[in-house]
Amino acid sequence: MKIFADTAIVDEIKKCVSWGLCDGVTTNPSLIMKSGRKFEEVVTEITQIVDGPISAEVVSLDAEGMIKEARPLSKIHKNIVIKIPMTLEGIKAVKVLEKEGIRCNVTLVFSANQALLAAKAGASYVSPFVGRLDDIGQDGMQLIEEIMAVFSNYGFKTEVIVASVRHPIHVKQAAMLGAHICTIPFKVIEQLSKHSLTDMGIKKFLDDWDKAKK
Ligand code: G3P
């Protein structure tokens, strides 16, 4: 499973790259706002740091506007993927952009039918938001299971990016379901490596090593 950094904070991305844990990056308007930097500027900088797909989101609501935003954005770097909201206008834009060779990531997906439409439009990626479904008392990971089954039934090439990840259990479940990609906030990427028994084990080995030297 590929790991993407779900952040627009460059220092976090640099750390993930240094650990070899950054196959790509996803941003959205909220993450750009959190970074406190200008959209094009920060996205351009990320392209210099990460050699993998980097999602940059459009904000227009009509297909024509989305396409107009997407074309110059895609010219920033070959790795830019255009994030398009899951609407009928979005699907229309995806068809045009993918035909032009501009890869799209259909975002804000909350049902298997939405994912099916995105795949039929030829989207390179689809982003179901598991955490936001959990938040309203639905089962986010069940959606991933459904989408993986639908895509495998028809051999769609669209890759599933498990998004809105809140904790390491989401990541484990995504991997167990065979999701192609999990986009993960920095804090959760750090958590993946941790276990209290690992820390206790290291401490014990070092204590014993000190004793062995005496
Ligand atoms: O990529 C964006 C998505 O992961 C949003 O996450 O935590 O705002 O639901 P969240």
Task: Describe the overall structure.
The protein is α/β, with parallel strands linked by helices. The chain has a single domain, classed as TIM Barrel (Alpha-Beta Barrel). It contains eleven helices and eight strands. It has an eight-stranded parallel β-barrel with strand order 1-2-3-4-5-6-7-8, surrounded by eight helices. It is globular. The mean pLDDT is 97. Bound molecules: SN-glycerol-3-phosphate. The site of SN-glycerol-3-phosphate (G3P) has 9 residues, from helix 7.
Offer a few descriptive terms.
globular; eight-stranded parallel β-barrel; 11 helices; 214 residues; alpha/beta; binds SN-glycerol-3-phosphate; TIM Barrel
